[in-house]
Amino acid sequence: MSWLPMLGLTALPHLGGLYGGYVTRKQVKTWYTTLNKPSWRPNNAVFPIVWTTLYTGMGYGSYLVWKECGGFTEDAVVPLGFYGLQLALNWAWTPIFFGAHKLKMALIEIVMLTGAVGATMVSWYPVNRTASLLLTPYLAWLCLATSLNYCIWRDNPDEDEKEE
Prior knowledge:
Layout: H1 4-29, H2 46-68, H3 77-99, H4 103-124, H5 129-134, H6 136-155, H7 157-163
């Protein structure tokens, strides 16, 4: 049963991803098609593949940190606390953007998320370098996603006004 924590912590991020996929699926075919989007936006089919990979990497990284800290110990409070914060922010973005159609709020939220991922990486590095480096593709993808969110907000100025 020593594999159970690894499996559980690796799978954990996918729970929010499944909910996010549920929220997104309907909106991608309806509301999202009405938005002005930049030409460099990745194809919609890329997103589930990328997020599955990123969630697996961050989940496994959290397991490495958990294991190195001896579980949920005092040593784990800061690195796993930052991880929990970024995970909550990650899970919150989709309902804000796709569910509530709040483009500006989603932009502010994803900037906070990106900062929280950076803080998580910094806190993980002295504990387990591999775990920290597993978050590098996630941080890079968030930079792209933040740029995309910004462009969509900028190019759809009436959207937030209609919702407020």
